[in-house]
Amino acid sequence: MGACCWANGVRAMTANLQVDYKRPLPLGSAAMAHAKLARREGRKCFLSATLTSLDQSTTFSTSTSLYVAPRQQQQQQP
C-alpha cells in the first residue's frame, strides 16, 4: 500500500493498517494485490486494498490504511 502512495507522488509513513483475512492463501500460490488511494485530507492519505486470486474470483484479504506525510513535505506540494 505504501507503493500506492509513492505512485501518487506522496512520501508518507504508515499510521494505521487494518487487514481482514477472508480465506487462506496456500504457501507458494500466486496472488494479485490491488491498492487505491481512497481519499486525501491534507497530510493524510486513506488507502484500501485487496489480495485476490489471479482470475479475481477469490478474495483472500481486504485492508484499509492511513498514511501520513511529514510536515515539511506537505509544505512543498502545491
Walk me through the structure:
- By secondary structure, this protein is an alpha+beta fold.
- Helix content is 15%, strand content 49%.
- It contains two helices and four strands.
- The protein has a four-stranded antiparallel β-sheet.
- A hairpin with a 2-residue loop joins strand 2 (32-41) and strand 3.
- The radius of gyration is 14 Å and the shape is elongated.
- The two termini are 23 Å apart.
- The mean pLDDT is 88.
Give a brief description.
This protein is α+β, with helices and mostly antiparallel strands and 78 residues long.
Features:
four-stranded antiparallel sheet; alpha+beta; elongated; about 80 residues
Low-confidence stretches: none
- How would you classify the quaternary structure? single chain
Shape: elongated
Strand content: over 45%
Number of helices: 2
* Strand arrangement across the biggest beta sheet: 1-4-3-2
Helix content: 10-25%
Structural class: alpha+beta
Main beta-sheet annotation: 4 strands, antiparallel
Q: What is the residue-mean pLDDT, rounded to a whole number?
A: 88
Indicate the topology:
Layout: H1 2-7, E1 13-21, E2 32-41, E3 44-52, E4 59-68, H2 71-76
Antiparallel strand pairs: 1-4, 2-3, 3-4
